[in-house]
Every structure is written in C-alpha cells, then in structure tokens.
Design brief:
Chains A, B: This is cAMP-binding domain of CRP or a regulatory subunit of cAMP-dependent protein kinases. Chains A, B: Pfam families: cNMP_binding. Chains A, B: GO terms for molecular function: kinase activity. Chains A, B: Keywords: Kinase, Transferase. The structure is a homodimer. By secondary structure, chain A is an alpha+beta fold. Chain A has a domain of 114 residues: Sandwich (Jelly Rolls), CATH 2.60.120.10. The first copy, chain A, contains 9 helices and 8 strands. In chain A, the strands form 2 sheets. In chain A, strands 1-8-3-6 form a 4-stranded antiparallel sheet. In chain A, strands 2-7-4-5 form a 4-stranded antiparallel sheet. In chain A, strand 4 and strand 5 form a beta hairpin. In chain A, helix 4 crosses helix 5. The radius of gyration of chain A is 18 Å and the shape is globular. Chains A and B meet through strand 4, strand 5, helix 3 and helix 5 of A and strand 4, strand 5, helix 3 and helix 5 of B. Chain A binds a DNA duplex through helix 9.
Chain lengths: 193, 193
Amino acid sequence: MQDLLFDFISKYISLTDDEKNAIVSLALFRQVKKGAILLKEGEKSNDGYFVLKGCIRIYYIIDGEEKTTAFYTEMEALTPHCVIQKAPSEYYISCVEDSILLVSDPDMEAEMFSKFPKFETLCRILAEEFLAKQQINFDEFKTSSPEQRYINLLQKRPDLIQRVPQHQLASFLGIKPQSLSRLRARILEKIKG
Amino acid sequence: MQDLLFDFISKYISLTDDEKNAIVSLALFRQVKKGAILLKEGEKSNDGYFVLKGCIRIYYIIDGEEKTTAFYTEMEALTPHCVIQKAPSEYYISCVEDSILLVSDPDMEAEMFSKFPKFETLCRILAEEFLAKQQINFDEFKTSSPEQRYINLLQKRPDLIQRVPQHQLASFLGIKPQSLSRLRARILEKIKG
DNA sequence: TGAATACGTTCACTTAAGTTAAGAAATGAT
DNA sequence: ATCATTTCTTAACTTAAGTGAACGTATTCA
C-alpha cells in the first residue's frame, strides 16, 4: 500500500530511504467503510486526506437535499476548506466505497516541512497542479451543457459513472437526477436512431 | 505600487528588507493597455501574472464565440495552465482595463525559492488558499441556478458587474448574453412587484 | 463627422431542465 | 426470504435557457 504512495511521489520528487521512513513514521493510514462520514457540516477538523484506494465525496445538504460536488479517487488529495480557513465546515465528506486513506494535518505537515524542505516543494507542486486541473474542469463546466458534461465525463472518468450512484452524479453535473435519466435516454436514442 | 505587493505578502509571511530588495530586483512590472492580449490559444508561455491594478480575463474561442471563464483583479495571481502543463495554451488572456501586472516565470521562482525558502512557503500557502476558494466557487456554481449565481455575484463581487461588459459576464455565469438580459429584467420585475 | 462595428435589450419560438408524482428495480436489514 | 428503503426511470406539466432576428444605442476609427 505504501508503495502506491511512493510511486506516486516519485513522479514529482525523489525520496531517500530516510525521507520515506519519516513519512511512514508520521503518516496515519486509515481504513474506512462505505458510507462512513469523515466530516460533517458545522464541524471543525484539521484532517486532510490522500486516497490510496477507494472513493470519497464532498456533499452539501441544501434545503434538505444532498448536493454532491466532488469525488476523490485513487492518488487524489483532499484538504477540506475548513482546514485552510480554520472555520466550521460547510459540507460533509463521506465514503462512497470501502477506502484506504492517508490522513494528514497541518502540525504533521509543518514537522515534515521543517525536517525535509523537499516535502514542501512537493506540496506546492501538487497544489499548483491540482489548481490548474480544477480551473480547466471549471472552465469546461461553464462552457458546456449538462449533456456535453455527461459525455465529457464518460470519456474522462468512465470509472466514476460505474462506481457512483446516479443521483450523486447528477448534482456533480449540476442537474437533478430526473434530468440525468432523461439525458441518458436522449443520448441512447441518438446512438440508436 | 510595490507597497501594495508587500502589504499583501505581509498577511502571510514577514519579509526582511533583504528579501524585499531581492523581490524588487527580480520582479518585472508591466503596464498593459485595455484590450491588450497577454496570451493566445496555441501559444506557449512561462509567464504568470499578479494583478497589482486593473483586471485581466481568461477566455476561450469555441465555435467562433468568446467564452469568458475567469476574471483576475487586484491582488489576485494567475498562473496559466500552459505554464504548469508545459503545453500550448487552450485559452486567451486579455486586459479588461489598463492594468499593472507583476510578471513571473518558473526560472525566476526557482531562483527565489533557493535563495529564500520562505518564498516557497508563501507560494504554497497562496496556492492552497486559492485552490480552496476556487473549489467553494465551483461548488456554489454547481448547486445554483443562473439567477442565483447572478444574485450571488452582485453580493460577492459587485465591482465586476460594473467594470466588465455584460456579454463577458454572461459566459462567466455559464449562460448567453440574452439570458443574462432577461434574467436581470426578471429580477427587477420581482423587486418592483 | 459619418459609417461601421460592437453591445445590450427585446421578442417569438424551440429545446431542455425543474417539479411533482408514480411505479419498477435494486439494495439492505432482519 | 421477505419487507422496507433507497435508487432509478418515466411521464405530464411548468419554467427558464438557447436560438435567431430585429432594433436602438454606444464606441471606434477612418
């Protein structure tokens, strides 16, 4: 399991055995069951997550309805807004599947950064890279229709459509579950016709 | 003008005079006229921008139509996707108003980082913070209607509605200019009625 | 200054998403 | 295995966004 992590890191920086050991000694691995809630609205938490295996999601409850806005799968990192802003969380985080996560918090990060400055470089690069990806995603979302967004998702993250319930996908696409059903039927119609 | 920059930085880290001088000696200030194009689709560039004064925007040309997806105003930093990905740009960047920008590139950043590690910390924090903000923005976009998005913008960035043409705002809100006109009329109707 | 272009609004019409409700299918718990 | 709950789909109706076109009003620039 740790190998997955080090393979991932090696794409960005090279680590000595000392550094690997430091990470392992500080890192907290956590197994979580499908449906488990990692963070609730209103709670304060300092935990960030790196998904080694499985899938977690962010959702809001607005007017009593769940609105899923993001999924994180293998080799993706999620630092909740409340950790950065030091404020109560606006959203929930829960497990879509049984998952294995690497849990971090700012204190642990600070310790790593001071011992191994290289590690701060890694975090900076990851943040910059993820920010760039996030912006492209947002741009695509803004400039396309729900139907285009779904077709886009089919191509870019076909796994998500398999592993995630439709009603969660719907709000991820910015629409209602009924509209997603209809839209899927419409696309099938087009392919057949 | 430099004071603006240092006041901003001082919110995150404290700088010695040496460090300030290093920034000034490496930094490139650039005055740009309204309408000037900083980056074109297909171009490769290594320049990142920090807006000291004015407003710049990102837009795509899709099927011959301009689609504006982002605005950057005072004290906001924009590192184009193509700088991170080392690939040709998918979008254009242009000046909405006469602006004063601080231009940076990866080489200059690397030099700063090695001389003053503190500066890498600043960049990491800014990237993390901006990422968190960006995600909240995206979440709000996904979970609200065009009308709600516009009302939201009225409250959060009223300045944008003043300084930016309607048709650019429209695509920023994910709709057509005609729909924005209609939506504004609808809101006025509600206030009157 | 005058012609051309770009911009914002309005209108009629089309298309698709939201809403409400019902029922079928899948899932989970006892 | 059965019952209850959740999830997904379908349908009819409402509402709002997309489309194409026209019109008045800036802006631009030759």
